[in-house]
């Protein structure tokens, strides 16, 4: 009877329940009442489905970094408002259809922070998509050529959270400007967007070009958005220096160890 039950669980794709019931049968010293066993099996199945959903959402997002808020450095030189960043992890800004604009010089951790917020959103069941914005424009250009442009735009619109990284590295031409306008217009007041850029927000107008369209985009994008302005030294440079220091210390230890052994 148990073998048949386990087989039926597999056929119904109740994998979490299958594992839990298998564990229960193997640990036959565990005693469950009927109510407890049913609750245990259902909870196991729910947990399994929830974890697989998070894994699926995270994989679909295609983040640049595997990041978490716990890994973010809040040292004073970076001037990060820790309370604000922690509030982002509740993802209320997604429920409220608000934007987050992250600016700072190269290497200060913009992409990492954006990815960390994105990972947190996935863990709460939100659909997230991460793009390097120039690669996105290239993808949309190809989509226009093969007739799938509107399908791509619709897919972007349906994301609960859209992360656009490295905005402002190149000035927008007519096609990019039009595509950017469509993306922002479709999401305005409906979905949340995070944009990370090396340029301060005051320089975005020039990058977008064509005053009327730039005004329209920035009015929808910047108005009532949360702003995170990162300062301090490049985290990549700091990490590289720390690696060099570690190598130096390790070398010194290797040199001193024989001396210590001799003295013993």
Automatic annotation (TrEMBL):
Residues 96-234 form the AAA+ ATPase domain. One of its GO terms (biological process) is DNA replication. It holds the Pfam family IstB_IS21. Keywords: ATP-binding, Nucleotide-binding. Belongs to the IS21/IS1162 putative ATP-binding protein family. NCBIfam families: IS21_help_AAA. This is DNA replication protein. It comes from Galbibacter orientalis DSM 19592.
